[in-house]
Design a protein that fits this description.
The chain is built from six helices and four strands, in the order ααααββαββα. By secondary structure, the protein is mainly alpha-helical. A hairpin with an 8-residue loop joins β3 and β4. The protein is globular.
Length: about 180
Amino acid sequence: MVFIHDTQQSLRAAAYLVNTMPGYDGEDTLTTLEQFDDYLRVNPYTGVIRRDQTELAAIRAIRPRLHELWEADREGAVPLVNELLRDGQALPRLVIHDGYDWHVHATSDDAPLATRILVEAAMAFVDVIRADEYDRVRICSADDCEGVYVDYSKNGSKRYCDSGNCGNRMNVNAYRRRKARESA
């Protein structure tokens, strides 16, 4: 499964943003402007970015809408994606900038950042749906994690998110259970 660069970038940015929501541990990791700057450093956006409390509040407010995309199946995601595109007044156009080859922007550069994030995520999910790869949109299999991710592995076998050490932790737990059964 290969998605073009901007689709992967938008999917990663959406997953990153969803994973800042309070999970099992109850911690919200997007409450300060410094944390917002960290998000933007890892997930760069072009256009107008104010980096103020109002923009941070707007970004935090869109996380549940993005999370719905991970809770849905392929057919259930279609109305969600269409709603995001409609709400963002998406009008796709080809652009080239900052060393990236031709790609699609679907909002104006001066649209609010929260709108641009939602529309870019929706456009990325359009690609996932059209490629019939929605089974790669996943919630972490760790029993103590609600992290989301998109599985880019060749064989589609990834089971854990990248938010923590879920895979390693679950493997250690399985190892300890095996050793305990062998000792008993």
